[in-house]
Write a structure and sequence with these properties.
Blueprint (H helix, E strand, L loop, with lengths): L12 E5 L1 H5 L4 H9 L1 H10 L5 H14 L4 H9 L5 H12 L3 E10 H10 L8 E5 L1 E3 L5 E3 L22 H11 L6 E6 L5 H5 L6 E5 L3 H11 L6 E5 L2 H8 L3
Parallel strand pairs: 1-2, 1-6, 2-3, 6-7, 7-8
Antiparallel strand pairs: 4-5
Helix pairs in contact: 2-3, 2-5, 3-4, 6-11
């Protein structure tokens, strides 16, 4: 049976985008090192299981600076990161129609995200961005840290969110900040860390799940067993997301 790609009209909706491999067509953390320092990228791959990912990226950025990597080089690498024109078109068109609030919820960092968005003319797309904080210091080092400080209280997620952020908690906090309730929530995601917020969606909500990545593997059994409250729309390429966004 073909998927139903029609959506009932609503007055007030929220669209939540993960960033890497969801809005963008690459992983920004990995991309920067693949472009500028492949040996560091290889080291990150080898150390991934030993270190929390945000901490590992922060340390790798320090090492990149020590090797002579500059702010300009990092920004240039981000500007050429794959980002499908269909996603630019689809999100821009939806934004222009009004009635939709845009929320970015990402385990990347604020500098990577805003640099890429600006390069695509999307700097005003999101009403709010929740991600890991980062800032440039005078030497040109990009100083990155976890959204949830490792020295403070930690989240209590049991679904499997990374220590730096529970995306389910962050979605619920956003919804509390933006009352009244949205008539519909659309969640666009691909990774295993998107599973927690998806489990908190309601029957009138929809997840746009990218095929063949971590979220897909987690969602499929839940959907088949009827344990998922929300509706699921699967996609592989950004052109398919554009077609879905055009229906909202």
């Amino acid at each position: 049976m073909p998927e139903d790609t029609t959506f009932s009209p609503v007055e007030r909706q929220l669209i939540v985008f993960d960033f890497d491999w969801s809005l963008a067509d690459q992983d920004s953390d990995r991309w920067v090192f693949e472009v500028l320092a492949p040996k560091l990228r290889k080291k990150m791959k080898e150390l991934k299981k030993e270190f929390q990912w945000t901490d590992l990226v922060a340390q790798s950025l320090k090492e990149l600076r020590e090797l002579g990597g500059t702010r300009q080089q990092i920004e240039d690498a981000l500007r050429i990161m794959p980002f499908h024109p269909a996603m630019v078109r689809g999100t821009s068109a939806l934004k222009s129609r009004g009635k939709t609030t845009f929320f970015c919820l990402s385990n990347a960092n604020i500098i990577f995200i805003t640099t890429i968005l600006k390069s695509k003319g999307l700097e005003n797309l999101f009403d709010e961005i929740v991600t890991n904080p980062a800032e440039w210091d005078p030497s040109g080092l990009l100083k990155l840290r976890r959204r949830i400080d490792r020295a403070g209280p930690q989240h209590e997620c049991k679904v499997g969110c990374s220590p730096n952020m529970c995306k389910g908690d962050e979605l619920e906090a956003f919804l509390k900040r933006h009352q009244p309730e949205f008539d519909r929530i659309i969640y666009v995601g691909d990774g295993s860390n998107d599973f927690c917020p998806v489990l908190r969606l309601r029957k009138q909500d929809v997840v746009f799940c990218r095929r063949y990545r971590g979220l897909y593997d987690l969602i499929r059994p839940y959907e088949e067993e009827g344990r998922l409250h929300c509706r699921v729309q699967y996609w592989t390429g950004a052109w398919e997301v554009e077609a879905l966004l055009d229906q909202l």
